[in-house]
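Chain X:
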Amino acid sequence: MDIAALNPSYGLDCLPMPIQSPWRADFPGILALEAEGQTYLDSAATAQKPQAMLDALLGYYAGGAANVHRAQHVPGERATRAFEATREQVARWLNAADAQQIIFTRSATEAFNLLAYGLEQQFQPGDEIVISALEHHANLLPWQQLALRRQLKLVVLPLDSHGLIDLAQAAQLIGPRTRLLTASQLSNVLGSWQPLASLLALAQAQGALTVVDGSQGVVHGRHDVQALGCDFYVCSSHKLYGPDGVGLLYGRTHALEQLAHWQFGGEMLLHTDYRSASFRPASLGFEAGTPPIAAVIALGASLDYLTSLDARAVSAHEAALHTELLSGLQQRQGVHLLGTPNVALASFVVEGVHHADLAHLLSEQGIAVRAGHHCAMPLLQGLGLNGALRVSLGLYNDAADLQRFFSALDQALELLQ
């Protein structure tokens, strides 16, 4: 991508102006880390938080905390209105047809476990669950364990040379015994958008349920779950500039009706005696116990903040950062990029250098990047690696962050190569 096409501030000499983030000051955590001498380049693991989110979090507690849905007093009604307003916001953010298609969980991982346990009775021994070779552990282990419990076959879709799910092989592996397909929208290691439209069509032609891991994808641009056409879509708040402790599960109404209740307690109950009980449908039927009230309300503030931004400007900023990141990595001898990333994320290894050693030297210079298997151990093993480094950028990052990273990288490589 041509940076000049994204930045009209180029001089007559055609040299790019430094990429600056107009939103950096909105994130006190970034400013605090900068004052501490830290450069944060690990947003794919968790993003920093805007001031608006912090204000909402404090406002809930300082203004009088109360539980939701059950109380008739003013604090409880106020908390319930704010909590359910966030459900409406999430539905609009994802273009869900109905806010009741949005279930709040305590993480994306919990959402996947909810699906694996809630759908368990839909499977018979010999049925097949199809995943891809690049899945995060959160979208691997619940299905792996379900397959073991129910004597199912776990089918793994291979990748092509670009790090994309191989559609030709997928067409051969998705068949009449396929009952569910689950795949990432955007790889947290390879940084590549996956060919979901074609992949979901293959599964739907066999009558299979479809699950999309949008944990990374939801951060980059707005995604329409109705247009995507999946049965379930999972993502998390803490990557979407919101608080931790909140996961989001979207489900089509007919798909949600196939879920069995998997956690039991207050809120999700309609009626019980000592011998039997009846339960609410989605969404409240899958939100047993006291939910993460403050975090959900604060997520609403994060979505308000993100909605207020110029989406085209955000996209252009991320694209410019991504171009500069890839260019800098490709200029350095011995650096091997994993896959073909197309968002502000890149994983790489350096020939003859252990990733942990490099990460240690970067950390000593105040550079916060991710090192290891990135919760995708089978993927790294399939690439013949025991780990890699990952740089991932948020809308608050700028060219100065990348300059500090590349300076530290050069110094570290001078010692290690």
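Chain Y:
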Amino acid sequence: MKKLIIFMLCAAFILTSTPKIRSQAAFNSLLSPDKIELHAEIYLLVNADDGFVIFEKNSNMRSAPASLTKIVTAAVVLERCTDLNEKVIVPAQVPAEIAGTNSSNAGLKADEELTVTDLLYCMLVPSANDAASALAYHFGNGSTAAFVDMMNEYVKKVGCKDTHFVNPHGLDEDDHYTTAADVIRILLYMKNNQPESYALFDKITTSRVYTVPETNKSKKRNLTSTVQITNSGIKDYYFKYASGIKTGSTSQAGKCVVSKASKGGYNYYCIVMKAPQYDIDKDRVEENCAFIDCKALFEHAFSNIEFKKVLSANESVGETKVELSRDTDYVNLVSPTDVSAFVPSNLNPTGLLVEIIPETLPEQLRAPIKKGDKICMATIKYSGEDVATVELVAAEDVKRSTVLYIGASLKDMRGTNIFWIMIGLIAVILATYFIVVLSIKSKQKKRRNLRVVNYRDVKNPGRYGKK
């Protein structure tokens, strides 16, 4: 009976789990380009290897994309083309559609024959709208609308939620929009999922000049890139570590550019949208502020941001309550590996903060726990900015108490059908036990009484017999 009482009391014993994080408060972040003059309404600079955001402003705001549209036109063509040397005949309607738009073009003529490769260079180097339309008609089986449907299917597949196209070249039209974040998402998708296509795209978009061979309608022509951030002849725009990618400009889109830069093992994508054009240095020449801002963002990133260790392996960053152990109430949390992140070059370690992501922490953490078991996820912040996400694991083993485990198991089962069945069985067993015990004791009492009677008969036979 004593064991049964202990067993039932253990069922009422349960612990709660409350995380306790030991870390410093963050301050004085340099993870924003506040110290440089920027002009655009939208910009975004990310690590080109994993998409980590370094700087951003309105990166999820929908805007007319202008010729940044052609990035997706190229992606769809490269995805569907089986022969880059395939001949494309320029439909007669293409020159007619582009005429009068005062937009970039390669001077394509009706019935002119060019390869897919040549048209891609025409579209991406000088940003020719007629080349984009010719490719759309060809790969849309005579319908640009069908090709635009392919473009919208493509961006949906990539994961874009704020991008929709109406044409393949980017001239302003209602319901034709994208965001800076979606453009970078598209580039990263191409890079990671279409490596061969991206390699050709990169080759084309980093070309300063390209010569289109003679065709059936034209002599050879030289094309020059519109990406002036790579033009060493324009000091205000030039950034020697930049290469490609694409520009855009319409009345609704403003001045736009997306480019990439690499230096010292660091690789960045930068996109600027809705930038103005005006004389910012009072030299009587209006500057394209998309190039000015893109260059400034690159320079600021390479000068002020480094990839540094922000958390050492096995460094305790907090603890969380654990149940069912008699040895300890808590388990220490650590990262199993060193964690590095993009942070200011003059990083102050006291500005780092580790915060558990609440939804990743189990509601109940129970022993047994082995050293290295994954417990939860956490974010590492610097001056309020998320700089890394880290997996936290148990720093030590935590043994389980059998008695506490049995009690908790009963607690967990309370209110379930199994629990009430067990209670019923226990009641039946106990009732049976008491009935059996009482029955045995009653019989034993009768036997004792009978033995007393028999003893008296033997000792005094005449008392109960005949006289």
